[in-house]
Amino acid sequence: MQTIWLSGAEWFAVLRIGLGLWWLESWRHKDKKSWFAGGGITWAAGIAAEHRWPVVRRTFDRIVKPRPRLMSYLVAYAELALGLGLIIGFLTPVALVAGAALNLIYLVLMIHDWAEQGQNLMMTLISATALLAVSWQTWSLDSGLGWFL
After folding, report:
1. How many folded domains does the chain comprise?
2. 87 or 3, higher pLDDT
């Protein structure tokens, strides 16, 4: 498919790179000192404690709450890795699936706050679109290495 400026495959690569920049911005805007001290997990614990779905409260209390520092690093560096991986197109299908999963986790945790959900829904939609359009076949390290063809 040819469009006015770029081919269809190139537009999907632009979409993938834009999603990577979005993840990179999620990493960049965090107050790292507070975040790595457990601030982000403490904030999320307050939301989980009042969640309308008991399974979310129980899961958060069992997996995340006992490990606030580890989870803070895991979340922040996952966002950084997703951003860089999508921008350069490295392990792109893995990054797209992992990013969609992380967005769905954020979506479920914040289900009561629909004002915040637009971002998670849009990022999940872009991940699914980029995955189904095999967006790593254009302008990516994966393509250069002959991976995921």
Report:
1. 1
2. 87
